[in-house]
């Protein structure tokens, strides 16, 4: 899904966290205000089968992904599914099939089997999917018009970001001078975001529109320059985009130059707009995170954690305020916000610490 001023209620005192030092910023460490808000309520919409992996939501609460059945045999672990209001539909029983995205009309895209055959299901009840042009390809996102972003190999075998305007019309977006590109998101104006290798072999974020690809953030000496939410400067290795809203704002993750304690590069949730990159920071005690969704009201959602493999905490960000979202009773090893509608409805997943519960959840603002 794609994401103005909201007065957030304060459940505890406003606290501040230093951001930017882990990214190698210079001078005094900038700070960003954050809150754990009692104004947000979490509701469990239902539970998925054990072995399910959620890939995408739409604003009606429909979920798509893949599931590994308990009786699966080695080498045949996946099955594409759609889920809504407690009812699950298996879209394909072929091995390695997966549903990766769903739009507001309920159209679903994914792959039908391990041959990476791209497919479009017109709805969760569709008897058969529509095969997309390209015997080998990977759809990644679909907008409300049914236009699909993804990637497929060219004649030389190099994977390029592409757009399917329909099942039989495909546009190759090319690269930023390298051999490889991939798409992660598409909005209703057919703007596509993703990453591409450049002439030096480094990956860079791109914006694709009108069949052309441009560098989202032109390279600068010392790395990409990102401005955090308090105005400080952070030097990054790269920006990994994840979603784009109707205004062309892009949510994703800034990947820092320094390593976290677990050996992975430090990442922060970031938003790109009009050539500038804003580092949203993290919650107190957390070092890594990513933005996963943004709506047309400039609200951003995602997750943060102490380390890449640590317990994940869901957040919503707006107007410089970072708010932690509540979890279900019993705790969670994963509490991740994945999408936000233009009305502010947040959808995500909540997994219990012992993984006995994989729940689809929604967060809503409480009425005052």
Describe it:
With 368 residues, the protein is mostly beta strands. The chain has one domain (15-365): Methylamine Dehydrogenase, Chain H. The chain has strands spanning 15-18, 31-36, 40-47, 52-57, 63-67, 79-84, 87-90, 98-102, 108-111, 118-121, 130-131, 138-142, 148-153, 159-166, 169-174, 177-186, 192-198, 203-209, 212-215, 224-228, 233-244, 250-259, 265-273, 276-279, 288-294, 300-305, 313-318, 321-324, 334-340, 346-351, 358-365. The strands form seven sheets. A six-stranded mixed β-sheet has the order 1-2-28-27-26-25, with no helix packed on it. A hairpin with a 4-residue loop joins strand 17 and strand 18.
Helix proportion range: under 10%
User: Over the alpha carbons, how many angstroms does the gyration radius reach?
Assistant: 20 Å
Count of discrete structural domains: 1
What spatial form do the alpha-carbon principal axes imply?
A: globular
Task: Tell me the span between the first and last alpha carbons.
Answer: 26 Å
The CATH superfamily name is Peptidase/esterase 'gauge' domain
Low-confidence stretches: 1-31, 221-235
What is CATH's topology name? Answer: Methylamine Dehydrogenase, Chain H
β-strand percent reads over 45%
Q: What is the topological layout?
A:
Layout lengths: L14 E4 L12 E6 L3 E8 L4 E6 L5 E5 L11 E6 L2 E4 L7 E5 L5 E4 L6 E4 L8 E2 L6 E5 L5 E6 L5 E8 L2 E6 L2 E10 L5 E7 L4 E7 L2 E4 L8 E5 L4 E12 L5 E10 L5 E9 L2 E4 L8 E7 L5 E6 L7 E6 L2 E4 L9 E7 L5 E6 L6 E8 L3
Structure summary:
0% of the residues lie in helices and 52% in strands. It is an all-beta fold and 368 residues long. Strand 23 (265-273) and strand 24 form a beta hairpin.
